[in-house]
Amino acid sequence: MRVLVIDGQGGGLGRQLTAALAAGCPDIELTAVGTNSIAASFMLKAGAHRAATGENAVVVNCRRADIIVGPIGIVIADSLLGEITPAMAAAVCQSSAARVLIPINHCDNIVVGVPDQPIGQLVTAAVEKVKELIR
């Protein structure tokens, strides 16, 4: 099972997701793509098997993934302070992979109907959903 984690900005969410997935799903092929090199580096250190950076890495790895995990902004062009290009958002949305999206209310994108929760709880819920999808 190929799981792709995508994150940007400081890479904090991606680092937490990667560490939790590496620990909780040891049999997956875990790839991390950062929208910048800092995010990619943090995710690699957190346990990703491989990491890459940038638009083309997102596009290519979305074609290979069975599951894509990341903040909801990865499906919104120009989100994450402009780090998500239209091509990145399209690649995530057009992928045949299942998408596990974390509802982060940042950068003028507000998800209503979802109570604010600590990042740790959101990461735990995302990992549980990935485990469910793997089964």
From TrEMBL:
It comes from the Bacteria. InterPro entries: DUF3842. This is DUF3842 family protein. It comes from Faecalibacterium longum.
